[in-house]
Amino acid sequence: MEKLRAIWKSLSFTNKLKLSYIVVFMIPLVLLGGYSYSSSLSFLHKQMKQETNNAVERITKDIESKLNQSEASLSLAVNNYSFQEFLSPPEGLSSLETARIADSYIGPFLYNVLLSNYYIDKLEVYSTQHFFVLTDLLKPSSSVEETDWYRQVSSSNAFFWWSEDEKLYVGKSIRNSITGKFLGIARVRIKQDLFSQSFNSFVTFPANITISQNENRKVIYEYNPENNNKYGYTITKTLAPVNWSITYDFPRQTISSFSNLQLLLNLTVILACLVLVGLMIHYLSRSIVKRIFILTHQMQEVREGNLNIDIDTSYQDEIGSLASSFQSMTTQINHLIKERYQYEIKQKELELRLLQEKINPHFLYNILSTINWIALENHQHKISQMINNLATFYRTALNQGKDISSLKTELDNIKSYIALQQIAREHSFEVNYEICPELLHKQVPNFIFQPLVENAIEYGVDTLRDMNGKITIRSRVTGMNYQIIIEDNGKELYKKFGESLFDERLYGYGLRNVNERIQLKTSPEHGVQIYIDSQGTHTIVTLPL
């Protein structure tokens, strides 16, 4: 309970309001949905069983009708008096006369019986007499009198149905209608589709249908035997003409699928209601707490750093009072940020000025000038060149105490610095300058390139052992900014870090100082970035145009 209370306290006012609405709507909706599901499922099961029973009854009667038609066609043949007389010919009837009667009357009659019923596949008559005519229809009974079915048919006047080699037959004895003399038997073979045509129309539900004899449960016919599912509903009927059982087994999944369908339907309705209720709750709660939502959104913006927002303070209620307090707070924060920003700028300027003041420029220039004249008098031109470069370096670095100089002055500074380093390192590296002349008048923070060039020498070209070093200082314009790129072909950083953007947290004091000074003078999107790849190190200084 305490945990639930804690969760409730942590929810926003909007979510509490929405949750209250949801609980109020959900309880009756779930109860109503459950009752609806139970009632509709019970009704569907009853309806399904009723439809199934009706379909089974219809199909059973259809099969019985086909069986009766087959028996009627067979009865038409065995009860025909002319045919009976033909099967018991009088003494002295010649073969020629027998053939004439067979061709003129008996053959057409039997073929008419065969064609009168679509489901009769073949008609055979086994006679006690031996005929040499209509041999495809008339056969001697001696060829089959040892079979069980012949004994069964000949011993009774009823129709006899049996299955043989997966084929269905019906037979009947032929007896003289007046004397009752046994003349033979007639049997017809039923087409395979007698049952399948009826079952194919049974599309209401899938089922495994089995026709079997009642006496020995011998299977006569199976429909859809590959359905191996567990059965949940079974109907058994008796085919009256043959006294066979026909069993309809309906898989359990068929019944459960209707349950699942109904459950899905109910869930769909409930979800649709929930969506509708959710939309209503959303708009109702939004209309109630709209101003709180707006104020919360504005607070979120402030938290993300946007302090320049317009807060509506025109209302005089509790929310209006909260908005006024929030507006006052953002104003105060803006004021404090500006004060802090200006303080940091002044602090950096003070640090630079303090560094510059540590060196007395007049004293330094006088000493350097004296050393230069002594070098010239002693014909030490290399020393003179170094003194001039050093004087230029300090003059441009000190920049008369100013913290802003032109790009041209900065380039003169690093050219002097690089000339001194080349002499000190016996010209072990070369330098190329590719600076766009249109950028030379641009104003930049003072003394920002020397630490970068120093890194390029110390951590770049100085680490090379089997090749000459190379430093390239070039410029490029990108949109509203321009970049000064200092590149060296040193591989030491690549071996250590691989191809990557150098992490600012690993910057040394000099790099960090240059980066912060540029951002303080311009904006956070400007500053220093270092890329490392297999070609060397690329230090990019981004400045506004």
Q: First CA to last CA: what distance?
A: 63 Å
Number of distinct beta strands:
17
- Tell me the β content: 15-25%
Q: What structural class do you assign from the helix and strand content?
A: alpha+beta
Q: Give a short account of the largest sheet.
A: 6 strands, mixed
Side-by-side strand order of the widest sheet: 11-13-14-17-16-15
Radius of gyration: 55 Å
Percent helix range? 40-55%
Average pLDDT level: 79
**Which stretches are poorly predicted, pLDDT < 50 over at least 5 residues?**
none
DSSP summary: helix tally: 15
Spatial shape:
elongated
Note the topology.
Layout: H1 2-10, H2 13-78, H3 81-87, H4 95-115, E1 120-127, E2 138-140, H5 148-154, E3 160-164, E4 167-175, E5 182-190, H6 193-200, E6 208-213, E7 219-223, E8 231-239, E9 244-251, H7 252-288, H8 290-303, H9 318-357, H10 361-377, H11 381-398, E10 404-406, H12 407-424, E11 429-434, E12 443-445, H13 450-458, E13 469-478, E14 481-488, H14 492-497, E15 500-501, H15 509-521, E16 527-533, E17 536-544
Parallel strand pairs: 1-2, 11-13
Antiparallel strand pairs: 1-5, 3-4, 4-5, 6-7, 6-9, 8-9, 10-12, 13-14, 14-17, 15-16, 16-17
Please give a structural write-up.
The chain is elongated and about 170 Å long. By secondary structure, the chain is α+β, with helices and mostly antiparallel strands. It contains 15 helices and 17 strands. The protein has a six-stranded mixed beta sheet. Strands 2-1-5-4-3 form a five-stranded mixed beta sheet, with helices on both faces.
